[in-house]
Amino acid sequence: MPSLGFGIEKLGLQVIRAPRIALAILLIFTVFCAFGIPKLETDGTLSELFRSGTKDFRNYTELSKRFPTSEFDVLVVIEADDFKNRDLLEDIRGLHLEMQFAQAVDGVISIFSMRETLDEKGYAPPMFPAELPEGDEFDALWERASTHPLINGKLLSGKDEDGQLMLLVLSLKKDVIVEKGLSVTIGEIDKLARESLESKGLKVQLAGAPVMQLEIRNAIKRDRFIYNGVGFLVGFIINLVFFRRPMLVFIASICPVLSVLWAIGILGHLDQRLTTFINVIPPLVMVIAFTDAMHMVFSIRRRLRDGMNRFEAARHAITTVGPACVLTSLTTSVAMLSLALTDSGLIRTFGFSAALATLLAFFAVITVVPMLTLLLIRDEEKFAAEEATKYKAIDWLTNLCASWAIKLRSNPAPVAIGGLVLLVLFSIAHLQLKPQYRLSDQVPDNKQSVAASERLDAKLTGSLPVHIMIQWPEGKTVESEDVINAISGAHSLIETQAGIGNVWSLDTLRQWLQENAGDSRPETVVKYLDKMPEHLAARFVNRTERAALATGRIPNLDAGDSVPVVRELDRKLDSLRQTYKDISFTVTGLAAVSALQSASMIEQLNRGLLIAIVIVIILIGVAFRSVSAALLSVLPNLFPIVAAGTFLFLAGKGLEYASVIALTVAFGLAVDDTIHFLNRLYFERARNASVNEAVFETISRIGPVLVLTTIVLVLGLAVTIVSELPAMRLFGQLFMTTLSAALVADMIFLPAIILWLPRLRAVRKEA
C-alpha cells in the first residue's frame, strides 16, 4: 500500500542513520528557538479581534484618528446612598484634581469639569466653585448640577432605593502607558481612587477598555503557566502509569516539551503577540505531540517486546505509524488554516500559528522518538523480558478493547444504526445554533471591570459608547448653519433611537445655552466650547479635521440585540444624507464594530469549518487511495462536531467566536483518531485478513492508544475550564465534549459500520 504520509515520514529514517548528528542539529535548533521566547509579548487589546480591512473597521480607525476613543478611557465608578453631601463632593473633587496630575492621565471628565453659562465678560465660571456654599445655596447648586444635560444621566445617575452612581472618565496618555506599562498605570489609578474614597464609605470600581485589557493580560499570563504545567503533568502521569519504564516515559514526554519550546520560540522570532487565542497553542501543541509520541512509543515497545532490535523497532514505527502521523498533522493543519478564512487578523494569525505549531509537533515526534530510542535503549533482550512479565496496565486495556471487539462483531447492526440516528438528531440540534457575541465575553467575568460595567448598564443606561461621526468638507466650519443643523439632526436621531441612551453632542450644549442663557447662536456655542477643558471639548468636535460626534451609550448586549439597533440608526441617517449631501454621517465605535462584524465573522468561521471538513475527507480519500476510506471517515468526523453543537444547544448557548474556533481545533484533533484507526485497518487488510479479523486486530492494537491519547487530550485541554476568561472555559467544555465524542465514534460507531456494511450487502444480494 502506498504511503499515507506522501513519503514525508522518511525524515525519521534519515535521523536513525545518524542519530548523534541529528541530536546536535536539534540542540542547535532548540537553542535558537529559546532565544525567541522572551520576544513573545502579551497583547490584550479589545479591538484587535475585529482588526480587518472591512468598511466598519476602517470607519472605527478614522474615528480613532480624530477623537479620543473609549479604548483609552478608564471609568471610575463611584457609588453612594446620596451624593448630595458637601463633604463627599469635596472628597470626590479632591480625587478629580489628584487624577489630573497623574502622569498617565491626559484629562479627567466629571461633574467638576462643567461650567456655568458665559457671563457678560465672556467668562464661564466653574459650576462648582472653589469653596462650596452651604444651606440653600448648596441646594440650589446641586439642583443646577444634577439637572445639567452633560451631568444628568451621563456622569450622575438618579437617586433610588439602590443608591446613586457617579462617573469619572479618565483619558489616558498612550505614550505613558507604553513607557510605564498598563499594569503599573492602572494599579496607580486604582490605588489612588480606593485610598481617597473607600475610607469615606464610598464603593469604588474601575471599568473601561484599559482595565479590561489589563485583566485579559493578567488572565493570559496566569493561564499560560497553568496550561503548560498541568498539560505536561497530565501527559507525564498517564505515560508513567501505562509505560512505567522511565526510559519510555522520558522519550514520550520530551517531545511535547520540545514542541512547546519550538512553537513559542518561533512565534517570538516572528514577532507575534500573546493573545487569548495564541495562549491556547502551548497546551494544544503539547497534547498533539503527546498523542503522536504515544503512538510511536507504543509501536516501538510492541516490536521490542516481540524481539526486534532497537533499530528495527524504530524503523518499523517510522514506516507504519509515521505515515499516519504525517496525515494527522496535515489534516489538523488544514483545520487550523481554515481559521484564516475570516476578516479578523487576530483569528487569522491564530490559524497560521496553530498550523505551524502542529507541523513542529510532528517534526519533534518523527525525529526525537526514533533518535532517543537508538541512543537510550541499549539492552533489547532485557527490555523484552521485563515487558513480558512486569507491565500489566497496557495489557489490561488491550484485553478490554479486545473484549469489546468480540462483542461488537457478533451484532454490529444496532450499534451502526444507532450511530447514524444520533448523527441525524445531533445535526438537527446543531443547525439550531445562532451567532452570539458580547464584548465582555473576552474579559474575565470575576473581576471589577465587568461588575462596574453592569452597574453602569443599570444606572446610566449603558457602558459602551456608540457614535455618529459627522464630517464636513473644506470651506465649511462648525459654525456653518448646515453643519450645526446636521449635528442637531444626528443628535435627535440617536437620542430617539430605542436601545441607546446617555446621548450628548454639541447640540446638547446648544440647547442648554438656549435654556439658561437665551443664546444658542453657533458662535456662542463655539465660544463656550473654548472655555471647557480641552480634553472634554475634544469629545464633541475636532475643528481641524472638520468632524463632530453625537455619542450615546448602549448596555453590554448580545450582538443579536445590538446589531438591529445599530443598523436601524444607520438606516435613519439616510434622511440626513439626502438633506446634507456634502456631509457624511457614520455610525461607529468599538461597540458598533464588534456588533456589526461578529455575526459575519462567526459565519465565516462556520464556513471555514465546513470547508475544512470537506478538504480533510478528500485528503483522507487521496492518502488512502480509496473512496471507501473517505466515505467511512464522514461519520466519525461529523459526529464530534454535531455532538458539541448539541451540547451548546442544550446549554442554551449560541455560536460564539470561541465555540466555533474550539470546534475547528477539536475537529483537527479528533480526526487523528479516525486516521490512525483506518491506517491500522488497511494495514491488517493488506495482510489478507478478513473484515472481521481486521476490525478485531485494529480495535485490539490501536484501541488502547486511542483511549490513552484521548485521555491525554481531554485532561490536558480540560485545564482551560479553570480559566478566568469565559471564552477559554468554553474552549475547555467543547474540547472535552468533542474529543470524547470522537472516541465514541471511532471505537464504537466506525467499526460497527465497517462490520455491518458487508453483511448488509450480503442480505441485499440474497434478496
Task: Give the SSE map.
Elements: H1 11-17, H2 19-34, E1 41-42, H3 55-66, E2 73-80, H4 86-100, E3 105-109, H5 135-146, E4 164-172, H6 174-180, H7 182-197, E5 203-207, H8 209-243, H9 246-269, E6 273-274, H10 281-305, H11 310-320, H12 322-337, H13 345-376, H14 380-389, H15 393-410, H16 413-430, H17 448-459, E7 464-471, H18 481-496, E8 501-505, H19 506-517, H20 522-531, H21 534-537, E9 541-542, E10 547-554, H22 559-572, H23 574-579, E11 584-588, H24 590-624, H25 627-632, H26 634-650, H27 657-686, H28 691-718, H29 726-766
Parallel strand pairs: 1-6
Antiparallel strand pairs: 2-4, 2-5, 3-4, 7-10, 7-11, 8-10, 9-10
Helix pairs in contact: 1-13, 2-9, 2-13, 4-7, 6-7, 8-9, 8-10, 8-28, 9-10, 9-13, 10-11, 10-13, 10-28, 11-13, 12-13, 12-24, 12-27, 15-28, 16-26, 16-29, 19-20, 22-24, 24-27, 26-27, 26-29, 27-28, 27-29, 28-29
Summarize the structure.
The radius of gyration is 32 Å and the shape is elongated. It is built from 29 helices and 11 strands. The strands form 3 sheets. Strands 7, 8, 9, 10 and 11 form a 5-stranded antiparallel beta sheet that branches.
Structure description:
The chain is α+β, with helices and mostly antiparallel strands and 767 residues long. Helices cover 66% and strands 8% of the residues. The chain is built from 29 helices and eleven strands. It has helices at 11-17, 19-34, 55-66, 86-100, 135-146, 174-180, 182-197, 209-243, 246-269, 281-305, 310-320, 322-337, 345-376, 380-389, 393-410, 413-430, 448-459, 481-496, 506-517, 522-531, 534-537, 559-572, 574-579, 590-624, 627-632, 634-650, 657-686, 691-718, 726-766; strands at residues 41-42, 73-80, 105-109, 164-172, 203-207, 273-274, 464-471, 501-505, 541-542, 547-554, 584-588. The strands form three sheets. Strands 7, 8, 9, 10 and 11 form a five-stranded antiparallel beta sheet that branches. It has a four-stranded antiparallel beta sheet with strand order 3-4-2-5, with helices on both faces. Strand 9 (541-542) and strand 10 (547-554) form a beta hairpin. The longest helix has 41 residues, at 726-766. 51% of the residues are buried.
